[in-house]
Input
Amino acid sequence: MESLFHAAALTVANVRRYSAENVRVAQGRATMDLRYPIGDFAMPAQVSPARRQQAIQEIAATPSKMRAAVKGLSDSQLDTPYREGGWTVRQVVHHVPDSHLNAYVRLKLALTEDKPTIKPYNEAAWAELADSKSAPIEVSQTLLDSVHIRFVQLWRSLKSEHFARILVHPEHGERPVDWLLFLYEWHGKHHTAHITELRKKRGW
Ligand code: NI
Output
């Protein structure tokens, strides 16, 4: 859902700054609500081992929640934008593993290198590529299953000191591994809600 590095955006301002989608969204409050069905990302007020486990559980559940969100949709429903001017349901489904593959790589870099600088990607442009526009969603559902099996295994293996390790975003500077964890907890819920909210609105 976001452009250069949606995942880097700690604040609404940053999300908008780096997102072609959000540039359009920022023009209207009503549209903005559709864009952020569960609200903007924010770090938890208090980070604790229990709160981290909750986030890991949510990440573990993301593939099955995405499957449930799209269950029974026809091709024409999958090719419907979740909001006016927004991505289609299909693009959203393909975006999530695109994003989480990047997140998985960023986590591994943060765990194995000293303050690695991560590589942003133009997610709005990725969403316009042929696979994102027209591949069967099952491909990305299976991809998400696989990525999350490894992502979650990795998250569950971390000790408290690992969550303080640092990665560097070229525009946003230093961020701890904790930030990645909570961002991707939010991100799966965020995109699932785009689909479930559309279904509610359309009565699908
Ligand atoms: Ni996104």
